[in-house]
Known about the structure:
The structure holds 2 protein chains of 2 kinds.
Chain A: H1 8-36, E1 49-58, E2 63-64, E3 71-72, E4 74-85, E5 88-100, E6 103-106, E7 111-114, E8 120-122, E9 125-132, H2 141-173, H3 179-199, H4 206-216, H5 222-243, E10 260-268, E11 273-282, E12 297-300, E13 309-311, H6 315-347
Parallel strand pairs in A: 7-12, 8-13
Antiparallel strand pairs in A: 1-6, 1-11, 2-3, 4-5, 4-10, 6-7, 9-10, 11-12, 11-13
Helix pairs in contact in A: 1-6, 2-3, 3-4, 4-5
Chain B: H1 2-62, H2 69-84, H3 88-109, H4 113-116, H5 119-154, H6 158-164, H7 177-194
Helix pairs in contact in B: 1-2, 1-5, 2-3, 2-7, 3-7
Amino acid sequence: MRGNSDPSGALLLGCGIGLWTFFKGFRVMREYKVLAATPRIPIRSVPMGFVHIRGKAESSEVLASPVSHTPCCFYKVEIDEWKSQGKSKTWVRCCVDMNGYRFYVADDTGKVLIDAHAAEYDLPLVTTREVSSHAPSGTNTNDADLLRYVSYARMHSMTDRMGQWIDKRFEKAGPIDNPQIQAKRDALRGLFAGVPAAAQGGKLPFEALEKLASAAGPFSDPEQEQKRQMMLDRLHLAEAASESGLLSGLMPPAQAADGRFRLREFVVIPGQEYLIDGTCIENSAEGPEGVEDKDRCLIAKGRHEPTFLISTKSDVQIHHALQKRALLMIFGGAALTLACTAGLLVHFGLF
Amino acid sequence: MGSSIITGLAFFLFVAGVLTYAVILYNGLVRLRNENDRAWANIDVLLKQRHDEIPNLVETVKGYMQHEQQTLLAVTQARSASMNAASIGQKAVADVQMASALRGLFAVAENYPQLKANQNFLKLQNRITELEERIADRREFFNDDINTYNTRIGQIPDVFVASFMSLKPRPMFKVSDEDRKLVEVKFASSQSSGA
């Protein structure tokens, strides 16, 4: 018996996905060629620009990863939610949460600082956990903590993305060494960094709001400047009230996420060897003492060369994997496009 | 009609794929060429830093090594040769000359304990040694880069795009064995005539 469903929507979508995959495959091919053509260099001689290095991670500051509590320099947690899509149920990506400190990568010749935010990570899976808010009562403390973490991670990954968007906008708007623009950028970063903790019942980012209000002025219009000063005064009062505990009753408690979730954790562990492909830039001074000589170079995501990879695999394995993925996407995309087009033609009786 | 649409689409995908691949090859070769230039510039920066340290070194040792004029002259001449070198090949020969001259100077300095105890001399010696190591690393990186470039422009299908762009193989930053022997003989004879 024939069904009543019209597959033309799905076939059109398939065509679109096929074409997107076909052209994206060429981007992956480009990334493969860039990595294959860049020789490795000892860390002591790292120049500015795109570099390819290998060494062991080192860090004086470590944090505990949220799922397995592994001491690490950096972690990435992929969170999937069990959702029904039509008649079927499947895991759907909910968010990807990343956090950590800058760490060093050292080889026999020297060490260099790495800012791992915005990198593509090819790391071994440390642990996978499933948690559900619908589990029988008496859910253990661990599961409750993980559900609260999922709620935090959703907010944190969103504010992280907004922070990166803000950074890009500021880079386009003006030179980085303009102090007023720098102050606004730092204030907005502080604001976005403080929002996830505040949403979980933590301290509100009053300091960041005050910095933003201060960086916005002074205004030439006296009325506007008066309003700005009044806002600053109110923020000071609110901060004082928060510190004295007057606002604690008003703040919502930390919220746990609702649903069934799968958490997959990847970490950068001190002492383990990593291969890094990224852009070496000048590390701008962030403190009153400036930057030490050994920290002058920083490897991060480049403005003009977006490739930034941190991996535990060998060069050969990475190149092979990238090449395979590129060819699969190119030929797979083309095949999907052709198949969906043939399906559409059959459906409309043209074939 | 349906089969002609499919055939048309397949042809379009094939042409789009070939054109996109050709653009990737072109961009890749442009990138390789610019990377070569950057790698060379990164060596040049270190060579210039080394040149700048040489006058300080000569001034520091002059007072102690009054009877080692030939050794000091070799270093000064090597520096001039390095600064006047134009092509990569000439710079490679000059680099070997400079390395030999500095090796000779540091070896002779071992005979002067007062010089060895001089903080300024030690600082310059460490600085120049560090620069030499970094030059060696970047030379290796540059030659790897050139090798990749030369291999790519000689292989199919890059060779077609390379001939369209008039790209030619580039020389590496290295010295032939004959030139290296010539430099070492020249240095040894200048040392023995001074002794």
